[in-house]
Amino acid sequence: MAEVTQYFRTSDGVLASRTTSGAVDEAAPLPEGSTPLTEAEYTTELAAVEAARQEQAEELVAADEARTREDYLALRGAGVPEATARRMSGYAGPAVEPASGPGGAGQA
Questions:
Q1: SS (H, E, C) the chain
Q2: 24 in a domain, yes or no?
Q3: Residue 86 within a domain
Q4: How far apart are CA 6 and CA 73, in angstroms?
């Protein structure tokens, strides 16, 4: 029996595929409002979605690392010992000493 794979975008923008197998002469109708896609279109659009997700994940990680570093520097600037500042802030980067004087935390 033959397998038939359909690629489509639903009316709310979701990329989808479905494979049917068995004794079917023609593919099932797509959900209402869906737009059919070729396999190449589906693959290209899915890769773009995955790239955007990866970029967003990297941005979130970078923002979290920056936040933990800022928290660590603030704790160190307040005189908290390094090990304690690391535990409290979640900072896992290299040891950095806060800048002294006005302006707060220093640069590495």
A1: CCEEEEEEECCCCCEEEEEEECCCCCCCCCCCCCEEECHHHHHHHHHHHHHHHHHHHHHHHHHHHHHHHHHHHHHHHCCCCHHHHHHHHCCCCCCCCCCCCCCCCCCC
A2: no
A3: yes
A4: 54
In a domain, 22, yes or no: no
pLDDT per residue over 39-76, tens digit each?
Answer: 999 999 999 999 999 999 999 999 999 999 999 999 99
Residue 12 forms part of a structural domain: no
Its pTM surpasses 0.70:
no
Distance (Å, rounded) from C-alpha 103 to C-alpha 48? 42
Query: Domains in the chain: how many in total?
Result: 1
Rounded distance between C-alpha atoms, residue 16 and residue 69, angstroms: 40
